[in-house]
Design brief:
- By secondary structure, the chain is mainly α.
- Helix content is about 70%, strand content about 0%.
- It contains nine helices and no strands.
Length: about 260
């Protein structure tokens, strides 16, 4: 997912936004063109924007198929164009997914240091299944490129196998958020903001379980439903990557007037 780095002398430093778990809800997003440009300078930001459109096109495919358009009609043409855009965006995102498993693999040994055995097992299973998905996805990608032989599974079949692990990873992540929410609910202190963050994260993981269950053929629902769910989760990820407005320090004249 890494973008080409600019020369050191011409690099533009963009302040990194707080992580979604630590970003206060009252922080305003920079919705200006500069804010969008800052979002697109990050590989993760570009990926989530592409994912939003990928699943939006999937929703169009799904809703169009429900209308059973006739061959040659405008709706049939729209469905075909949306399907092409969806497929190309998925392939582009898969290309930039290479090496993204390294940080996940590096974080696995840290799971063993978690004191709570239940939390340790949950975190370990979530990360191992996530890394497994990424590596299987690479194998499927190389099969699509005809670099590796298809064997018993074609490139698409191998990618669907990897998506089953991604589905499992998100289900485990949902359980982790549910456990955390229960623990916060039993605490005496007011943890309303943290509980709301848990609810949002759990909701997102459940929607991703729905998406990946359909894409992996584990449990097929409908492209329209999966497309809408994917657009929602992608919007949540885009907002998490979007830069926040930076507070400008008061000018010297303003300080003098306030005296």
């Amino acid at each position: 997912f890494a973008a080409p780095r600019a020369h050191a002398q011409h690099a533009i430093r963009i302040p990194r936004p707080p992580s979604p778990a630590h970003r206060p809800s009252e922080m305003a997003l920079d919705l200006s063109l500069d804010g969008f440009n800052a979002l697109c300078t990050k590989a993760e930001g570009r990926d989530k924007v592409a994912r939003f459109f990928q699943y939006t096109f999937r929703a169009i495919v799904g809703f169009s198929s429900m209308a059973a358009p006739k061959t040659g009609s405008s709706l049939h043409t729209l469905e075909g164009n949306a399907r092409t855009a969806m497929t190309q965006l998925a392939g582009a995102r898969r290309t930039h997914r290479w090496c993204k498993e390294f940080p996940v693999l590096q974080s696995i040994p840290k799971c063993l240091s978690i004191k709570d055995p239940v939390d340790m097992v949950i975190d370990l299973m979530q990360k191992v299944s996530l890394a497994t998905f990424m590596m299987i996805d690479h194998v499927g990608h190389m099969k699509q490129w005809k670099i590796l032989p298809g064997g018993k599974r074609s490139g698409t079949g191998t990618i669907q196998l990897g998506l089953k692990f991604f589905c499992f990873s998100n289900f485990i992540a949902f359980l982790a958020q549910a456990k955390k929410f229960l623990k916060l609910s039993l605490a005496e202190d007011d943890k309303s903001s943290e509980k709301m963050a848990c609810i949002k994260a759990a909701f997102k993981h459940l929607l991703i379980v729905l998406q990946t269950a359909h894409l992996s053929l584990l449990y097929q629902s409908h492209d329209a439903l999966v497309g809408v769910a994917g657009a929602v989760t992608s919007s949540m990820d885009v907002m998490a990557q979007w830069p926040v407005l930076q507070k400008k320090p008061p000018s010297p004249d303003a300080k003098e007037k306030s005296k």
